[in-house]
Amino acid sequence: MTEADAQEHRKKSQATLKVIKNMEQALADNSNEMSDYFHDHFKWIGNYGSGTKEGLQAFRDNWQLPLRAAFTERQYNTDKFLVDGEWASCFGHIEATHSGIFMGIEATGKRVKIPYMDFWKVTDGKIEDNRVSVDYAFVMAQLGVDVFNGHGWEAYDRGERIPEHPEDTNTST
Question: Domain 3-157 falls in which CATH fold?
């Protein structure tokens, strides 16, 4: 890569990061106008429980507004951004108050942490693709619901249960 190419790549990366940070601030500000940040045809793909949103209106109706209804007093805390040209990613968490129904759980008033990871593709100054992973199991545990019914592998880490291992430890499975 030539120095000129590297410089162009850095500029693209900086522009991508700016779009992402501005969008994140708009979410934190409860903006109802997100078209400045997303292509009309963008796709939002989440982990199980999050669903897939085709386009800005589906994102708004099926992610942004339900999140606002379930969790108020949201604070977005991104720990780290990684940017490479038109792609960016981050991990962090939202701190929020559980004020409405979430995954069938009535409002508890508890302050919770909602861990997330995001991966975005930015083209023409707007987000075209957004891959998301939200740790719902952790959120639900904070609200008193153990989706693993005591069988989460954290029990191994705490020494409460002994993990199963294959009989032949010389073979990977």
Answer: Nuclear Transport Factor 2; Chain: A, (3.10.450)
